[in-house]
Design a protein that fits this description.
- This protein has about 375 residues and is of the alpha+beta class.
- It is built from five helices and 20 strands.
- α3 runs antiparallel to α4.
- The longest helix is centred in the middle third of the chain and has 33 residues.
- The two termini are about 75 Å apart.
């Protein structure tokens, strides 16, 4: 077997090529791409003045009971108005929901009974005049010795009887609206308030043996909320307990009230117990028959960390807060929420006592750090 031979000249060429290749590879292995410096975010002094930083504190977390309820009239502030005479309604002056003042005319009824009372009034006034003249005449005769004392006493008795009859018929008319206009009975508001029930229209026939009221007036500055307490939650409500109420009409407004009565019986069908909540309603925002959601705090709660609700950033289906260490060290921290009570949020995990968080303009910092 014969070997392959190369000349010295060819060897030198191959050697030069090999050295050149190694040199090129060596240069490539030593060269590295330029390192890109990451830009660090720091708050300027002017930025710091726009932020609000608060310390995480421990608060008492109370579980909220949610009770369904309904706004109702305050029965202590409701007046039912009945007709005291029979007749036919000729005019109705108010409508459901109207605000009325004490003494305001609500309706007018044509009544034969009132016609009889008016006739009695005319007769009583005429009798007063007749007996007054008879008494004056007997006084003159008695002074002249032409009439006996017995005659004078009889005239005085007749006059007093006429006065009594006039007082009686006047009182009857006052009870029945105070009208002296023949057969007219005027229904007047006994108190100021709102017409919350109206059962009459023109031409309605009225009978005194009918137990239905004509109108109902309520002072809506104080109302009740009747709430249902489920059997398992009865032990968590008590008299005098302050509650918060929300309605569909005002979802962002909290009304405060106090449980002032507990009905210690259960509905046999729904198995719920009623509680009554006294509510101030000076602006008349709460209307009877409104549905209400009653929030009651269960005072057997536990201690959890609490932060202002406005400090939380919701992004990518998660909740975050901006934890402040110093102007150049700010951390985006994910948190887990236990519950929210108005403007305070209780934290289950993600923060520790004493952490400092940004609660104002934190969204600007979040965007700057997470672009």
């Amino acid at each position: 077997m014969s070997g392959y031979k190369i000349s010295m000249k060819e060897f030198n060429k191959l050697f030069i090529l090999l050295v050149a290749g190694l040199a090129i590879n060596g240069c490539k292995s030593k060269s590295t791409p330029a390192k890109v410096e990451s830009k660090k975010f720091c708050l300027t002094d002017s930025m710091m003045h726009t932020l609000t930083i608060e310390t995480v504190e421990q608060g008492k977390y109370f579980k909220k009971l949610q009770l369904p309820g309904k706004v109702t009239y305050n029965d202590d502030k409701v007046d039912k108005i009945f007709a005291l005479v029979s007749g036919t309604v000729t005019e109705v002056k108010v409508q459901l929901g109207d605000k009325v003042q004490k003494g305001q005319t609500l309706a007018i009824i044509h009544s034969t009974e009132m016609a009889g009372y008016s006739n009695d009034l005319v007769n009583a006034r005429a009798n007063i005049q007749v007996t007054q003249k008879a008494l004056d005449a007997q006084n003159d005769l008695y002074k002249s010795g032409l009439a006996s004392q017995r005659d004078l006493i009889g005239a005085q008795t007749d006059y007093r009887k006429a006065q009594s009859d006039l007082s009686r018929i006047t009182a009857i008319l006052n009870v029945n609206g105070g009208s002296t206009g023949g057969a007219v009975y005027i229904v007047k508001a006994p108190v100021s308030g709102f017409i919350v029930d109206k059962q009459v229209t023109p031409n309605t026939q009225i009978r005194t043996d009918n137990g239905n009221n004509l109108f109902m007036i309520s002072d809506l500055r104080k109302v009740w909320v009747m709430a249902n307490v489920y059997e398992s939650e009865i032990s968590k409500v008590r008299l005098g307990q302050t509650v918060k109420v929300t309605t569909l009409s005002y979802p962002d407004r909290l009304f405060e009230g106090v449980i002032d009565k507990i009905y210690n019986v259960l509905d046999p069908v729904n198995k719920v117990m009623k509680v009554r909540i006294q509510m101030n309603n000076d602006d008349y925002a709460l209307k009877p028959e409104m549905f209400a959601n009653v929030q009651v705090s269960d005072r057997t709660g536990s201690a959890l960390l609490g932060i202002p609700s406005k400090a939380i950033i919701f992004d990518n289906s998660k909740n975050y807060v901006m934890v402040f260490h110093d102007k150049c060290t700010i951390e985006t921290r994910p948190i887990e929420i236990a519950n929210t009570d108005t403007d305070i949020t209780f934290i289950k995990s993600g923060l520790k006592l004493g952490d400092k968080i940004i609660v104002k303009n934190q969204l600007f910092v979040y965007q700057a750090l997470n672009e």
